Amino acid sequence: MITGLHALINANDADKVRAFFRDVLKLPFVDAGHGWLIFAAPPAELAVHPADDGAEPSHQLYLMCDDLKATMKDLASKGVPCGEVLEARWGSVTSIKLPDGSELGLYQPKHPTALNLAGR
Q1: How far is the C-alpha of 50 from the C-alpha of 48, rounded, in Å?
Q2: Rounded Cα–Cα distance for residues 77 and 75 (Å)
Q3: Quick one: which of 82, 89, 87, 84 has its CA closest to 63?
Q4: Which of 9, 16, 7 is nearest to 80 (CA)?
Q5: How far apart, in whole angstroms, are the C-alpha atoms of residue 103 and residue 114?
Q6: Which of 20, 7, 5, 6 minimizes the C-alpha distance to 102?
Q7: For position 35, what pLDDT does the model report?
Q8: What are 99-110's pLDDT values in tens digits?
Q9: Residues sharing a CB contact under 8 Å with residue 88, sequence separation 6 or more, in sequence order
Q10: Cα four-point dihedral sign 6, 113, 115, 103
């Protein structure tokens, strides 16, 4: 039986990115030992999309929010830059700049979500 989803972010400076998730996003965590923090993630959903012609299968990770403008304003007040907002049929999407220079997707869905189905 599947009991959860464990996502990984490979970071150039894992300590800084862990501190970002702990101190800026305020995600609860456990210390698995030696500074390896494992964060409790918000409710999740999983979608499967077809790979583009000729492209290798891949994975993507996005954080979701219910008000993208308000979330971006809150992140900006904490010194976190976000990318340009792109409007897509499925949602309003941007990215968060992580402390190691990488980016993490952030979007406000326009589609029905499966977030509350896990408890059913």
Answers
A1: 7
A2: 5
A3: 82
A4: 16
A5: 24
A6: 20
A7: 86
A8: 999 999 999 999
A9: 110
A10: positive
> For residue 81, how far is the Cα from the chain centroid?
15
What is the signed CA dihedral for 59, 107, 92, 118, rounded to 10 degrees?
90
Residue with tokens 């990770």: 61
Distance of CA 96 to the CA centre of its chain: 9
Interval 38-69: pLDDT, tens: 999 988 888 898 888 888 888 889 999 999 99
The mean of the pLDDT values for the chain is 91
Strands (E), 1-120: 29-31, 37-39, 62-64, 86-88, 91-97, 103-109
